[in-house]
Amino acid sequence: MAQPFLIPDVAGIRRTDLDGLRRVAYLLSALLLGATASMVVPLAVAAGYGEPHTVSAFATTMFIGAAVGTIGFFLFRTELTSLTRREGFTVVALGWLLVCLIGSLPFVLDGILSPLNAWFETVSGFSGTGSSVIADVEALPKGILFWRSFTHWLGAMGFLVLYVAVFPLMGVGAMQLYRAEAPGLEVDRLRPRISSTARILFAIYLGLSVSLALLLLLGGMTWFDAVCQTFAAIGTGGFSTKNTSIAWWHSAYIEWVIIIFLWLASTNFALYWMVIIGKPGRWLKDAEWRFYTAVLVSASLFIAALVYATSNVSANQAIRDAFFSVVSLASTTGFVTADYEKWQPLAQYILFMLLFMGGCAGSTAGAMKVIRVLLFVKQAVHEFFETVHPYAVSTPRINGKPVTRGMMRSVSAFIGLYLLVYVVSVSVVSLTGMNFPTALSAVATAMGGVGPGLADVGPYDNFNWVHPAAKLVLTFDMLAGRLEVVTLFIIFTPAFWRR
Amino acid sequence: MKIIVVGTGTLGFYVAKRLSEERHDVVMAGDDEEALRRAQDAIDVGAVVGKGSSPSILLDAGLRSADILVAVTGSDETNIVACLIAETVAERIVRVARLHDPAYLGAKGIIDKSSLSIDLVISPEEEVAHAVALLAGTPGATDVLEFADGRVKAVGVAVDADSPMVGKPLKDLTRRAGEKLLVAGVYRGEMVSAPSDDIRLMAGDTLFLVADQPSVRRAMTRLGKRWARTRNVIIVGGGWEGVSIARRLAAAGVHTKIIERDPAVCDQITPLLDDTLVLRGDGMDERLLVDEGVQRAEMFVAALGNETDNIFAALLAKRHGARRVAALVDTPEYMPFASTTGVDIVLSPLLSALNPILQLARPGQIVSVRTLRENLVEGIEFDAVEGAGIVGLPLALLRMPHGSLVGALVRNDEVIIPDSATVVEDGDRVVLFARPALIPRLQRLLAPG
């Protein structure tokens, strides 16, 4: 008997659209299986707390996800040698929609939310926003409550990054997925291979999460609460397990610990790697991080002074509340300890502006990202300089490196696009009858992935009353903000589909 | 392993591509930002923009902890400086450099590669000259790879329209008593199929045989090839490749003519080529080709600077009666095209230069690595040692991935063409063929642990 023969493969590379679709379908199926598998955790929680109805909701969802995923996985099974940019974007955009869809099923099956509300809650969770339609979260089954927080943690890092980290099988495709999930800025490669980079980032993420959970336990939280607040904090999401959010604990310790960890979670993770490889100087000298920290501290102190001067709270309380609110909103988390709507209007305006800036690039924070704002400011200052010295040969620098024209162009384009989406969304939301300050802040908070806004969607309000059409627009904004606008939009542009 | 590739040209890109596909950590360094960006789009590698001979750039690329430095820029000087820096910073790093100009190593006794702190010199010109010499020694073949000091050959052979084997099943070729012969693949059009014994051969097929030398010869005869010694070879193009090829062939006693258009180049190369006739003229001038006896040439090699010219020149020579024509082509996408238009042999200096680098990056006792046809198949020759996955079990039980096979063994100087019951023993020299994508999955077979 002879050995099996060599080479069962096609040598000539013939890329067809069908091959591409097949790869996309295969990856989406794999993603669906992954998302389904992650529901084991809330299912176990529900079982542990003796909630049979919730257990069956998760079990049914998992059955559906596993069935569809498995069929797709084997039906479209293919060799993932490479992925085009277009396929990468398609997988990421459709993948997010798909995961949000399956993630919303438990809410519906458990009879807690209508399909639209469940969709809103889930998109808000995965995108790390934290806007809720639920007034009384403390009445929810523990399994559902856990899942709500867990979505923050899963979504913040990006499913695809998670995938790239866990399954190195994707090789080249990894880069395309990675780029599509965090487009706009050049990816910092901590290691030459993208899968190694993703693993490092994930380890840092895990490390931050475990540290925070332990510290919260020390502060007197229960295991369940500590884990859920950690998910929401490190994922810069904002869902709490209490109706009054972090204020429920009335603990200065817990509030300060959370302030510090929100600040850490909204710092570029690459900087932690610099510390690990023995270059802590890079962290302290990082222009973006310094700018971000300066903004946080000065805004907090200014608001604290303002609050102290205009209302009768103690200085200590004013500082704590100001720091918490500023860091919570700037890091795009949306935890609450104080009703900032009672503050002086300027304080509220500052908080509103922070909804747009967000945290550092390369962190779990959303919105425009500090680096873009910083580059934008630098460019503006540079324009003045050039007006005075029209013959000067100079270029703005960041971290000692010159800012290229290409970088500047992409920053301007991003900010323009972001504001365009903002303006259009506010008009549509207003059309549904939402009042002016509410609409302005609701869209900003959705796009930035923050959570609470002002007026009728303030820190102690919820989104249940919002018109269904407005809910759809807001969920779209959340996803657009999370995927940095480009990824979600690009699949709707004709140029993307033109051959 | 951590590998730094200096140089963003075609060779640099393919080195980085192959190594990263084998899951090594690869960082590319070079000053062509655009090329680096395109590379990162296609392959999973890190990139550092800057001069490859600059210490700070190499340090940024991770020189301190790298295992291998591959310097393959177009400039010999840059490559040498990169290796010198590497030695200063990281003593144990393996340094590989491409050197174009034979003058660096030609002056025997003055300087050698160790004084330039290079561990391995890769020379695409020498690799391609070696390949041509092998082809000259195997009449009728389109590809020849040698393993185990020449005892095992992997040979590509085209089935001609007038071959007596056309329409016959494959087993008529392989199922003969005493033949040490394996047909590893049938290349039809642009497809490679897994041949079954009953597949009927068609004109235009290319067979890949693994065999010892006498069996190759008998198989060729049965396929209707004339086993006529290669006596006359015409080379077009007096560049480094052409000169290297001419020297190799002349040394083997082949009558070699080299045609070069530029008189200055002719003057330059004439003293280098004692036994070769240097002709000044246009290699695409059919009068000149006919006058110089292209119809009597057993082999014609087009080694001009431009690959499309090479394909065209080879076709022209074929039309005028050259028996086997070869064209040097470096763009992998062009290679299938060249062979389907009627060029018998497609040689790639760049891709053949990959082989020694791949050999370095493999675990186990690798003796050599050879690639066939734009990296379609790789042949790995290694010494089987106790503890390696391949030792001790019949091949059928090894669960080798589809697309890989053991082509031959050499045991006590005897060549064995294995079947599914063959057991590899400690100390055997093994020649294994596989698609490159499968190499990471085969590592457990090659080395213990």
What does this 3D model show about the protein?
The complex is a heterodimer of chains A (499) and B (449). With 499 residues, chain A is mainly α. Helices cover 66% and strands 1% of the residues of chain A. Chain A has helices spanning 17-38, 40-48, 52-75, 85-109, 115-126, 142-157, 159-166, 172-181, 194-218, 223-234, 252-265, 269-276, 280-285, 287-310, 315-330, 345-357, 370-388, 405-431, 436-448, 468-482, 486-490, 494-497; strands spanning 397-398, 401-402. A two-stranded antiparallel ribbon of chain A has the order 1-2. In chain A, strand 1 and strand 2 (401-402) form a beta hairpin. The longest helix of chain A has 27 residues, at 405-431. Chain A is globular. By secondary structure, chain B is an alpha/beta fold. Chain B has helices spanning 10-21, 33-42, 55-60, 76-89, 103-106, 124-136, 171-174, 213-222, 240-251, 263-269, 286-291, 307-319, 335-340, 349-360, 439-446, and strands at residues 2-6, 25-30, 46-49, 68-71, 94-98, 120-122, 141-147, 152-158, 181-188, 191-193, 206-212, 232-236, 255-260, 276-280, 299-302, 324-328, 345-347, 366-372, 377-383, 404-411, 414-416, 429-434. In chain B, 31% of the residues lie in helices and 26% in strands. In chain B, the strands form 4 sheets. Chain B has a 6-stranded parallel beta sheet, with helices on both faces. Chain B has 4 domains: 2-122, NAD(P)-binding Rossmann-like Domain (Rossmann fold, 3-Layer(aba) Sandwich); 140-222, Alpha-Beta Plaits (2-Layer Sandwich); 232-347, NAD(P)-binding Rossmann-like Domain (Rossmann fold), CATH 3.40.50; 362-446, 2-Layer Sandwich (Alpha-Beta Plaits), CATH 3.30.70.1450. The chains are: A mainly alpha (499), B alpha/beta (449). At the A-B interface, helix 8 and helix 9 of A face strand 2, helix 2, strand 9, strand 10 and strand 20 of B.
